[in-house]
């Protein structure tokens, strides 16, 4: 255990990174990282506690079984989030990656290394664990369960999930890579955010509607729902306890024999070089692959989608969804373009040797983010019922806004290429505020007036003001697009000459 606590104290990843670094840095304590994670997850967990306690109290007063169904449904969803996120992290942690290569040179037992990696994988799911704890705490208080038995059930549930997932992770170790892990973490983080908003949204929902909805959660009480065994019945609680012990023993045996296999990569035995038709087609194909490579790009695309779906559930007015999603998406398009553009400017000297015009390489980086996000907005239109033709102005206006944002994002990268490959810091703080102010301000100014224009109760004066604001916003967006594009083109030409 001494070796395990040493790893926790200094943090293996920090020791490894400092060994590779040319600069002398102090060891970052694992305790500090854990405290920061707790500071991030505990406030949200406390908010969830008060909201769920209020909801469970209302449901329990109507029918205790309904409150239990709601509780089991949330626990089932959170268990699924935990297993998916935990498996991805643990499978990579238990493969022969750079950190493991370093740790294997130290006099540390393989079992200790395995337990440490499993512990780190568990901590990575701290947000989900925080939701778990506080949701169950609120339910336990409302249902007046025995506190000691309640804590025991929660402990057994965690032990079952961790031991079950750990055995699978050990058996499948080496089947994933860091890129996949990061994408999984992005998805789990997004799901956790929307789960948080979903819980809060239940406060304004009619209890009769909630009762009707909860009846569909009856599947969570069935014996096949292993994701909530500890809470369904005492009999299934005992099964969960026994299986947890069994999985822990199996994991202990496998941990001693773990070989830390290299990450498995699929390669073709006979690699054939083939063309993709025209130069532009090849460039588009390259950039489309890049959209799947970066987890940040995935986040910027999926967040507005998830936000739109979430608002569609809690608000019957689809215009509210559009007016919420479009400004956020407009802001994110600049980041998506910057991500695709950054690779070209960080390797500018190599790129200039290609038999392709540099401006030709840039065009897809504007078109791809604009097109992807425009399709997202159009998909929202498919589920919307608009009363007037005026609402269809949203489509061309959205195209203009996305194009403007894309051009701005490329211009900032071209003018001041990031000195780091970290896509989370592709723009400076000042640049981010400028982009946010321009894109979201003009998006609200262009889209929001339409809601007043289609409302028959809007006064004549308000209609005139709305039209003027919309025309002004569209005009400014057009001017910024043309002006920034000219500056971008001029800057690219100067870069090529130098």
Q: What is the global morphology? A: flat
Order of helices and strands: HHHHHHHHHHHHHHHHHHHH
Helix content: over 70%
Strand content: under 5%
How can the largest sheet be summarized? Answer: none
For this entry, what is the oligomeric state of its chains?
Answer: single chain
Through-space gap between termini? 59 Å
Query: How large is the radius of gyration?
Result: 26 Å
Low-confidence stretches: 12-28
SSE map:
Elements: H1 2-10, H2 12-20, H3 30-62, H4 64-93, H5 98-103, H6 110-123, H7 126-143, H8 147-171, H9 178-201, H10 207-214, H11 229-232, H12 234-257, H13 279-293, H14 295-314, H15 318-346, H16 348-351, H17 358-382, H18 394-415, H19 429-453, H20 460-497
Helix pairs in contact: 1-6, 3-4, 3-7, 4-6, 4-7, 4-8, 4-9, 6-12, 8-12, 9-14, 13-17, 14-15, 15-17, 15-18, 15-19, 17-18, 18-19, 18-20, 19-20
Description:
The N and C termini lie far apart (about 60 Å). This protein is an all-alpha fold and about 500 residues long. About 5% of the residues have low confidence. The protein has two domains: about 250 residues, no CATH class; about 210 residues. The protein is built from 20 helices and no strands. It is flat.
